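Table S2 (text version). Query chain:
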Amino acid sequence: MNSKEEQTNSEVTNLENKIHIEKQKDANYINEQTGDKKLDEKSIDIEYDYKFGWSSYSEITNGRFAMIGFLAIILIELFSQQSFLKWAGIL
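Corresponding C-alpha cell output:
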C-alpha cells in the first residue's frame, strides 16, 4: 500500500470510531441498548416457566434426564464389565 491509501484507511477508521463514541454519548442510544437487554432477560424468564406440552422447558428437562440415563448405562458397563443388555437380563 502506498501512504495515501494508508492515510485514507486510518481516516475512515478514525471517523467510524468518532461516530461510535457520539452514539454512546447519546442518552437515547444507551436507553435503547439497556431496554433491549431488559426485554431479553424477561423473555428468557418467561420462556423457562413450566408449560404443559411441547415447550423449551420440557425439552431441556427431557434432555437432562436422557444425559443422566446415558451416563448411568456407561457406568454400569464399566463397573460390571459386561454389556448393559446382558446386565439387565435382556440378552
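Notes on Table S2: The mean pLDDT is 75. The chain has two domains: 1-47, 51-91.
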